[in-house]
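Changelog-adjacent note: as of this version, every example in the card shows the full chain rather than a window. The one below runs 152 residues end to end.
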Amino acid sequence: MFTFSGWAAVLSARGSLRGGLGQLRIVSDKSNRTIIQSAVPEAIFVSSDDYEEIKYAVSKSDALAIGPGLGCSSQVGCLLEMLCECGGSPPVLLDADGLNMATAGTGPRIKDWTFERNVLLTPHLGEMARLSSLSPEFIGSDRLVVTKEFAE
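Full-length structure tokens:
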């Protein structure tokens, strides 16, 4: 899990653990270490400025969740570029700021994430509107059809 907001990481981590996740690594800004390790002692903390440790964490992961609390800074853009270049990466759940970075052009585009991995996008209505360039009203009129067409 990649995040820069400590509490977003805690919320996502707790949900993952309750869902049956085995080992959990959280990549976040070192300023969040105390928050994360206090609230989720089961998690292995990885500092977001330690790219070698991040690459190792990715190589040991069965899946990645990228986005909740991530932020949209240039440091995050560099981190996402590095992740996109990791060959043989596991499947990715791209949510929240991960989607925002991909649609704003400040990080790897969505198509860059799909080269060697499966990618699950979890946009809310506003994020889907930005991703697809469709109006929220049009998307809301038939979400299932719009989602299927966008996925293809």
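Structural remarks: The mean pLDDT is 86.
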